[in-house]
Structure formats: C-alpha cells, structure tokens
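Quick one:
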Amino acid sequence: MGFDLYGLNPKLKGKKPIINWEAKPTQEEKDEYFKAIAKFETENVGYYFRNNVWWWRPLAQYVLVLMSNDFTEDEQKYWHHNDGFKVNDQKAKKIADRLEQELNTGRVSERAHYHEIEMKKAKEKNELLEEKRKELEKIVEQKTGEKLAPVKYPEPFKSQWDDIQKQYDWSESYPFSEDNVMDFMRFCRHSGGFKIC
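Output:
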C-alpha cells in the first residue's frame, strides 16, 4: 500500500506523455513511455508525489504536528487514508514554507537523526523478540511432534506467542529522511494544492 499525491493545479513544463494501452504496445514502446513519464515527473515536481505507507506515515505526522492549527482533527485523519482528501493551494504553500524553514534551521536533520536512533533501538528489540519466537517454535515442535503455525499452537504456547507479538516495535519499519521532506516540500510548493489518494 502506498500514498499517491496529485497536484491539483501544478506548474507544468511540457505535456504529460501518453500511451495507447489498447493498441497493445511493444515492450520497447512501453519502456520508452515509462522513461518519458519518469522524466516528466522529475521536471514537474508539483505533478505527483508518492510514498509507500512506511515512508508516508512519519512524513505526514511530522507535517501535521507542524501544521496542527491548519487542519481539524478529522482532516488530520484523512492524511492517513487514500480517500482523495484535498489540500488547497494556500495550505500547500504554507506547508512548503514551514518545511523549508524546518530544513533551513536543521530541525528536519535533527528529527531524522533521532528517528534513525529510534529505528535502531526498535530493530534490536525486535531481534530479541525474534529469538524468543524461534525458541518458542522449537519448544512447541518438541511438545507436539509437529511444526505448527502459531495460530494452531496449543495453550499456554499460543498465549506466549501472542505476548511476544504484542511487544513488537513497528517503529523499526517507518523511516524518515531529510531528502523525503525536501521532495515533499518541493511538491507542495509547485502542486497548486493536492489530493491524497
């Protein structure tokens, strides 16, 4: 799953490449089209911005904390859904200005560094949990004589498995970087407003 953001009124250089998929283009034509689209998107930073769910969540949360007075609680929830929520041009430019300020003062860099430390801690914790899961898997196999999926573990092993799973730290999976913030800032500035799909 990912988040695709489309500029509502982006400043464009040239026309977006098109291809007639019904004409069953050759592989060469497809390759040429995808290269042209990549070039178009690179040259038109306000046209399209994408992040997978892992990258988008920390970025969106960072923006929403900065812009908490500009979006209602309900609007903030829409940033985490693919419902086509729209942000107007004025707010998009305000986001860009605020992110540029954060980048220039070094706060984004600080946040990225802190985030990296937290991800490392989470990874270390999850590696210990993985060792516990493997130990439990061996115990269950010895007791039952079968290699079972955790959902089929007999008690008390099923409860032990569930307890281990509850301790998993998902923050290991959600990266945050200065480059991603910079790309989003540029997109916001040139998008003419955007929708989150």
